[in-house]
Amino acid sequence: MLRAIQAACLSAVLSVPVVAKAADLITADHAIDLAINVDPAIKAAEAGADASTAGLRQAGKLPNPTLGMEVENFGGSGSVAGLRSAEYTLAYGQTVELGGDRGARKAMANGNVKLANAQLVVQRLDTAKSVREAYIIALSNEAKLELVRERVLFAQHIVRAVKQRASKGRDSAMVVRQAQVNVAQAEVDLVQAERNYQQSRMQLASLWNGADDGFVLDKSAFREPANDEGIVQAGAEQSFPDLELYEALSMRASAGIKLEQARALPDPEFSGGIRRFEGTDETAFLVGVSIPFPVLDSNRNNIDRAQSELLQADLSKVSAHRKLTQQLAAVTADRDNARIEISTLRANVIPQAEEALSLAKSGYDQGAFSYLEVTDASRNLNVVQERLVEALQRYHISEISIARLTGQGVSATAAPRP
């Protein structure tokens, strides 16, 4: 009943929305802190770490002694009728672990502690990654929204220019209508962009059980990278936090072999006590020892199982390292490709597209170019600008994936629990 009440209280706490004041700046690190504080998966991993620590404390305990009381030779017939010839025995016994059971139990419990702490670190990394990705997507949608707003303003400006030219007979009514249609299309795109942006903000806030209350995102998190910037270099030797899971599994499996081998060695129980002979009013001491006889069960199969589990853990670690290395190489290549695309767009493509639009507008005002040539130049600039935003999003998502794989660049991951 108590556990049910505790679980209900914890659920209520985790579901309470985290409120940020309107217009507060929420950085990515702050968002991660908020999410980690309410993430039930992290709370579960923390409970698992606490459970493993309790298991370690228990593993060091010695077997409890036994205290026995026996009454013999009473309630019969003749000379043993009633309690006249009764014998009372009070004995104390203690099992002595000879095969290193206690040390093996502690080693296995240490493996459980290491595994639980590794699971906690990995869960924190996963939560941080989810928050950072949602943060970047929100910033990307914000940048796209700003581009669409600029497109609407430009389309409205062109409509005014076309109407002015049409009033002078320099453009037809069809051109005016085309310009008005372009404004309407841009306004539809604006509504969709605003909706996408709001949805991405709500998705981000939901990670800390919050709401979109007007918080401000840190636009510097969506910056353009330097040409030589990067968290890791492809092919560099890296450590992976996920491998700690397999290290712990190997450690636990190795301890499991020693534990099963220790259990195969019989542990004797030594006993001693005192016996009272009621019929002769005499008292005597007694000592004894009992040893299990391993004729039916030598624990061989459990030893074989533990050895296979160690082999499985070691091979799983090798396989995981290979997959993680491949994933790191893939996301590093994606990041570098995105960085090259960003550099090319910013240095060459966008300046040319902006110059082409400027020339088209100037030529249109002078009657050298048509309305369609202006809209084509504007459309080309919009395409490359949106492509730059998409490349920036891919770059930062790749950086986040690299940080997740290597355990770098995430400040919200606390140290393992003691």
Distance between the termini: 29 Å
Question: Within the largest sheet, what's the order of strands?
Answer: 2-3-5-6
Structural class: alpha+beta
Helix content: 55-70%
Q: Rounded to an integer, what's the Rg over CA atoms?
A: 37 Å
Low-confidence segments, given as residue ranges, are 1-22, 410-416
Beta-strand level of the residues, as a percent range?
5-15%
H/E element order: HEHHEEHHEHEEHH
What does this structure look like?
Helix content is 64%, strand content 9%. It is α+β, with helices and mostly antiparallel strands. The strands form 2 sheets. Strands 2-3-5-6 form a 4-stranded antiparallel sheet, with no helix packed on it. A two-stranded parallel sheet has the order 1-4. A hairpin with a 4-residue loop joins strand 5 (269-277) and strand 6 (282-290). Helix 2 crosses helix 4 and helix 4 (101-167) packs antiparallel against helix 8. The radius of gyration is 37 Å and the shape is rod-shaped.
Features:
alpha+beta, 64% helix, four-stranded antiparallel β-sheet, 418 residues, two-stranded parallel sheet, 8 helices
